[in-house]
Design goal:
By secondary structure, this protein is an alpha/beta fold. It contains ten helices and 17 strands. It binds guanosine-5'-diphosphate-rhamnose (GDR).
Length: about 350
């Protein structure tokens, strides 16, 4: 029997690598699209031991003709679109690139599918940022209003509308995942969770400078990237395309994340001071673990939000995400072993 073909756009990123691993286990032939320039960053694919089992293809989603040509030669059954700009704070400094890559790039993909392969099923990774300044006391779901408050959120919201429009108007099986933050050992070090675990492992093994962080009061609904990407594969096997919130329903602050992660490396974390003078230190040795630095404060940060994953669970049978404590444990364990083995450049 011929294997089904999956094309992952953004295969070198955290979500792309996990998707490759899940899809190979599910018996797919996997093509992995990457943007030239990110081609050397295959450490995630190596970490999951999938690099030699997938076909890497250089794909630029900004180039519609090139996309059409590539789709024509691969003719994928499923496309997982997890490519694009992902750093929210940076989108203020490059709004045009953000809109071009995240919105126009998604439009190019949808057009290529409409023209060539209307039977191809498409998953698009949107973001909880589309909810923007929503009331933090409610669990956000697929019917919650969009109140985007930065260029990144607007780029995702518009792309999400396009996905729905292609579904409704052209009958394409195009599904939106509205993803809350999702973390794990393959996370890029500029996001706060990995910044914390990578540096805690460094301090625990080698000592050195404390971690400089922004607001410790910021809170997020943090889920597991491994579990969310598995749910993505379920959404394309569902009976019909739809919009789904990927969330845990639980908020954790950066301070609490830092505390749990510090305990995980064997520290006894204590917090002292307020605002930009707050410090976290190891009570048993007096060593500074983290300091707050205004350099990392965001002029406009998104408020705390939590999401309701019930629809995703009910309609796909997904079991949900592992808890934050388990995610932290895995991240710390992996980062300790990276430092012990001299693997720092990830
Ligand atoms: P976010 O993730 O912007 O929510 O976007 P990030 O990890 O960057 O920030 C989370 C919260 O932590 C606070 N924070 C810091 N953030 C960073 N990066 N560095 C710090 O030192 C620091 N200190 C405190 C931030 O202010 C913020 O409140 C992620 C991305 O994956 C997006 O692509 C995705 O769409 C959304 O999650 C849902």
């Amino acid at each position: 029997m011929n294997k089904k073909i999956a094309l992952i756009l953004g295969v070198t990123g955290q979500d792309g690598a996990y998707l490759a691993s899940h899809l190979l286990k599910q018996g797919f032939q996997v093509f992995g699209g990457y943007r030239r320039g990110s081609g050397t960053k295959v450490w995630r694919l190596e970490h999951l031991d999938v690099l030699k089992h997938i076909h890497l293809v250089n794909i630029n989603i900004d180039e519609p003709y090139h996309l059409i040509e590539t789709f024509q030669s691969i003719m994928p059954d499923y496309i997982f679109h997890v490519a694009g700009e992902s750093f929210v704070a940076d989108s203020f400094t490059h709004p045009l690139t953000t809109i071009e890559t995240n919105t126009i790039g998604t439009l190019n993909i949808l057009e290529a599918v409409r023209l060539l392969a209307k039977k191809t099923r498409v998953f698009f990774a949107s973001s909880s940022e589309v909810f923007g300044e929503s009331n933090d006391s409610i669990l956000l779901d697929e019917k919650s209003p969009f109140l985007p408050s930065n260029p990144y959120a607007i780029s995702k919201m518009t792309a999400q509308h396009l996905v729905k429009m292609y579904r409704d108007r052209y009958g394409i099986f195009a599904t939106n995942g509205i993803l809350f933050n999702h973390e794990g050992p393959l996370r890029t070090g500029s996001f706060v969770t990995r910044k914390i675990t990578f540096n805690l492992a460094r301090i625990a093994l080698n000592g050195g400078e404390p971690i400089e962080l922004g607001s410790l009061d910021a809170s997020r609904d943090w889920g597991s990237a491994e579990d969310y990407t598995y749910a993505m594969t379920l959404t394309l096997k569902a009976e019909k395309p739809d919009d789904f919130v990927f969330a845990t329903g639980k908020l954790t602050s950066v301070r609490e994340f830092l505390k749990i992660a510090s305990q995980e490396v064997g520290f006894d974390p204590q917090f002292e001071g307020n605002g930009s003078s707050e410090v976290c230190f190891n009570k048993s040795t007096g060593q500074e673990i983290a300091v707050v630095s205004e350099r990392y404060f965001r002029p406009f940060d998104t408020t705390a939000r939590t999401g309701n994953p019930n629809k995703l669970k009910l309609e796909t049978g997904w079991a949900g995400s592992k808890p934050i404590e388990k995610i932290i444990q895995e991240m710390i364990e992996t980062d300790l072993s990276r430092w012990k083995n001299g693997i720092k450049n990830v």
